[in-house]
Amino acid sequence: MRLTPIDIGSFWLPRQTSTLAPEVDAGFHVVYWLSVGFFVLVVGAMAYFAVRYRRRREGEKTSSIDHSTALEIVWTTIPALMLLGLFAMGLKGYASAAVAPAEALEIQVTAEKWLWTFTYPNGTTTVNELGVPKDRPVRLVMSSKDIVHSFFVPEFRIKQDLVPGAYTTTWFQATEAKDVAVLCAEYCGTGHSDMGAKIIVMDEPVYKDWLEKGGGASDLPPAELGKKLFTQRSCATCHSLDGSRIQGPSLKGLIGRSEDLEGGASVKVDENYIRESILNPGAKIVRGYPAAMPTFQGLLKDREIDALIAYLKSVN
Amino acid sequence: MSVIAADDDLEGAPRPRGTNYINAERGIVSWLTTVDHKRIGLMYLGSVLVAFALGGFFALLLRLELLSPGHTIMSANQYNQAFTLHGAVMTFLFIIPSIPGALGNFLVPILLGAKDVAFPRLNLLSLYLYWIGAIFTLSSIVTGGLDTGWTFYVPYASTTNTSVLSVTFGIFVLGFSSVLTGLNFIVTMHKLRAPGMTWYRMPLILWSLYATSIVQILATPVLAITLLLLMAERVFHIGIFDPALGGDPVLYQHFFWFYSHPAVYIMILPGMGIISELIAVHAQRKIFGYKAIAFSSVAIALVGFLVWGHHMFVSGQSEVAATIFSFLTFIVAVPSGIKVFNWVSTLYGGSIKFTAPMLFAMCFLFLFTIGGLTGLFLGMLSVDMHLHDTYFVVAHFHYVMMGGTVTAFLGGLHHWWPKMTGRMYSQKLAAVAAALYFIGFNVTFFSQFILGTRGMPRRYYNYLDQFQPLHAFSTFGSWLLGVGFLLMLYYLLKSLKSGAIAPQNPWGGKSLEWTDAASPPVTENFEHRPVVTEGPYEFNEGKS
Ligand SMILES: [Cu+2]
């Protein structure tokens, strides 16, 4: 499983790793205990009456009290007041989540089937990995290229839909230097449940360094880097390596095979073809498949494309 | 209240004596052309039960797939189609028509002391529309499936290559069926009440069906328009919702929930009505707070129109809108709470018998209370940011829709089964089935609350390994539920063949179907037109 796990903090909730989490959880706990109280009251009364007033003989006389105005007022107003309290608590938490501090670091988020891209103020772009500094507010300005997705970070307690044709925003301030899971929470088709990302929370200097190197440059040998990128950049969401068809063709034994294209032509797969498929997927469409592959132009560096090719050659 | 066991038949199986609505005419044509509300109700019952079986079958497949992360028995695309069909079938073909179409059609005229509904032919038409709609909806199974989820969110629904058109058209037609039923009920209640049947002497199920009908008539057209627009966008590429064509996807969500939130009340209000009847009759106790229950139904129906935006707190709607919707959502919780308190109070000082219907009513109180309370979590703006679109929501609405409506439907079915079929079923087996159902339900769905709060999103084919134990537990619960339903099917069918003959009033009810109509009733319901002199909950009459 390539998705980052969610750290669990208590029986019910994930670990709190943002400044917002304690506030949301406070609301959660209030409504939780209130619910437990009401549940015990209602079901307890029901159980007690069921035993106390079980039928002992047919035709016994029953109570004919058919209403009690005092009681009705009590059980309307008291819950109503409690509900108002809940509303206010929810609103307060929501207000904290809605407005990002002015000094927040701004990062663009783009979603498409089925990957996330993050663009930093200096122009660096990363895919499925969002590097952020610890203890600094980060504001995300988000949009979708195709359909509605939703950016969900359980440990931060934030969730915000990404809508095509509009910008939505959310913000957070991470409190622990660790990897944090991001999930897509709005159903988006075949790859929905694999549309995860990872937030890498780093201490400020580490973050600076990370960003300077273009977002986690790696010194792995090419084939190993390719293997890592293959899952990390979502190739695996659409391509299997065992011959089975997902959204796109299996890439098992790719190099050297002869591929029938839409429009009748065919092509022998070599390094150039793979490179073109990644950077300009619309140029040649494999027969029988939709033109559904997103372009990775600008999202993969040359070294990374070479690594992917090296890896794909190795899975024959 | 003893059960009459007559055994004068050659095969040894007793048969109800005399003519009634079932044996008055014979042959399939007599059924397909009938205008008798009871026969139409029975045909609805058969149809919705088939839909329920189909939806349940998909549910079992889904749970089986989720037994382990990744591929278990089907591919991601098959999974997406299975959950879409499960949702669409359960919502549009089962829950919405279940209580009004099946039990409501059978009961409304009898409870009012009328011979039939106001527009009997329209009633038959609504059944035919239901069938036509069902055929279009289900045709998608063979024509490429549907993978949009039952909510048809755009732009996904305007771009997917699965059969959106036939299903949306089917649901469009089903909407008309629903509107016609609602219209018929409203007119019937206004015009055909027996002499002496004042509004406050109506059994509470009628109040809840009345409130339901209002919502059906006012909200369903909005769904119809929305689906038409969606079809127009797909076919003619008119940009309404799809931003690629210049439309607005959030507008779709507003339209959709403007119908679908009130639809939640179309689904739950009739169930609440049933519960009022079951508790009063099986506790032989005058209902506590008649007017509070009656008017809370109407209040729920009206305020229910103003809360649709709580499905969209994180969709990018404005903060002000979200705030108002959250506020109104808490308001609508009040009348539901009032009902629960009144039901429990009705048990106070009663004479409670643990018949199958009463067991289901108690299941309802337990499950619906959890369903309602967990709704408060989702109404809170801050908490909803975390819980929205997770398994918490899945668990919440199953507690309301299944734990609430389906449990009430089952209770109602067991309550009126003797009246509808003229046969008694085994109370012992029914108690076992109710227990299996109750345990299976909680095992299946309570675990999903925990999954949800821990961050498991809904509609996920694949999931984090850490969630596997809870998913497996939930799947195990679904098998218990399945066994419970098979058991119900078994003893109910068996009762048709060899069940004891039902007396006219097996539970000691005081409403007209028990006091004035035979089991099963004759074609025009009553031998003599009933005259009503008191309310339906006067159980102490003639007792010392
Ligand atoms: Cu998505």
Question: What can you see in these coordinates?
Answer:
The complex is a heterodimer of chains A (316) and B (544). Chain A is of the alpha+beta class and 316 residues long. Chain A has 7 helices and 12 strands. In chain A, helix 4 packs across helix 7. Helix content of chain B is 66%, strand content 0%. In chain B, helix 3 runs antiparallel to helix 4 and helix 8 packs antiparallel against helix 9. At the A-B interface, helix 1, helix 2, strand 7 and strand 9 of A face helix 3, helix 9, helix 10, helix 11 and helix 12 of B. The site of copper (II) ion has 6 residues of chain A, from loops.
Task: Describe the secondary-structure layout.
The complex is a heterodimer of chains A (316) and B (544).
Chain A: H1 21-52, H2 69-98, E1 105-112, E2 115-119, E3 125-127, E4 129-133, E5 137-144, E6 149-153, E7 158-162, E8 168-173, E9 179-184, E10 197-202, H3 204-212, H4 222-232, H5 235-238, E11 258-260, E12 266-268, H6 271-279, H7 302-314
Parallel strand pairs in A: 1-5, 4-10
Antiparallel strand pairs in A: 1-2, 2-3, 5-8, 6-7, 6-9, 9-10, 11-12
Chain B: H1 28-32, H2 37-65, H3 76-112, H4 120-139, H5 156-159, H6 164-191, H7 204-236, H8 249-282, H9 290-303, H10 319-347, H11 356-379, H12 381-387, H13 391-421, H14 427-453, H15 468-498, H16 512-515
Helix pairs in contact in B: 2-3, 2-4, 2-15, 3-4, 3-6, 3-8, 3-13, 4-6, 6-7, 7-8, 7-9, 8-9, 8-10, 8-11, 8-13, 9-10, 10-11, 11-13, 11-14, 13-14, 14-15
